[in-house]
Amino acid sequence: MQSSLLLFVTIAFLQCFGSDAARSHPTLRAVTVIFRHGDRLPNDQKGGGLTNTGRLRSYRFGEKLRKKYGDFLGEFYEPASIFARSTEYARAQMSLQLTLASLYAPQKHQKWHKSLNWQPIPYSHAPLNNDVLLYPDGCPRFVQELKAAESSAEFKKLLEPFQETMKNLTRLTGSQVSSSKDMFLLYHKFDAMRYMNQTLEDWVYDYFPDGALLNGTYLEYKRLKFTDWLRKINGGALMRKVVDDMTAESKRAEADGRKLFLYGAHELNIVSVLQTLKLWKPHIPEYSSAIVLELREQSNLHFVKVLHYQGIPPVFIEKQISGCTTLCPLDKFIKLIEDQLPSYDEIICSNDGL
């Protein structure tokens, strides 16, 4: 009698609390990851590549994703389950390749070499002058809009307090520093040198890592979203695709869905996506930092969960969209950011559009 009663209580407990647990952990349906490349070379303005530390950091990021999402992604690489894209910059392509290498190390029958624990995984990229998703500031239309924004009285007023700083930096560096972009590039040169433990001249610390160069970099972030159209294209175009992909996945049978959308990109992408999600707080995104958007399902309802991978330190932090819960219903998530998203008619980079 006692054993029967115990069995009844156990079943009732599992039915009650098991269903609550299921509700609190909706099924993962798709993951979108937008991440910054690893540590770059100091003079890598033309896209030369990564330091060895940067290579390792990118590889470790793939391991982090495997640890967090391995059960969902499955043991084996399945071509139909992943979409991978980077910018044309070498450092972004290399970071994506390294992340994929650790995320999808070959297992069992996929091993093709007895001592090489790697398998080739395809990815795509667009030319810099026609990559509206990940590098809009290379698009001819975007460049035109930026020039118009820079010429405005409103922007000139924001740049004016930096005139003396830019004059001093021009003298100290021997290179022309006359814009927010110049200050942005100089900041990241010094930052790359710092991460390589290279010696910085004493005067650098008057401007970096805090102070005028940091504020000039923040002004560059503002410049890239200075008008409504720039704001919608820079970050908004990428989030338009993310939203459309999540919507499409929500309508597919789970077995037919694409599980991972992986974008190897830059710190400007992290900034612009955070701004589009209305989660931006001024900071410089670290190497290999990422925005992760999970699509989850429970009882035919779909939700979005946003995480910010810090990169340094290597931890994930849950983010909450203003006006919603941490696990935000998909339709509400879209509604809350739709004013930041362009229509496809607005997404113009060159004659080829997207």
TrEMBL record:
Cross-referenced InterPro entries: Acid_Pase_AS, His_Pase_clade-2, His_PPase_superfam, Histidine_acid_phosphatase
Signal peptide bounds: 1-21
GO molecular function: acid phosphatase activity
Gene3D superfamilies: Phosphoglycerate mutase-like
Pfam families from the UniProt entry: His_Phos_2
Reactions catalysed, as given in the entry: a phosphate monoester + H2O = an alcohol + phosphate
Keywords, in A-Z order: Signal
Annotated CDD domains: HP_HAP_like
Family: Belongs to the histidine acid phosphatase family.
Name of the protein described by the UniProt record: Venom acid phosphatase Acph-1
Protein source organism: Trichogramma kaykai
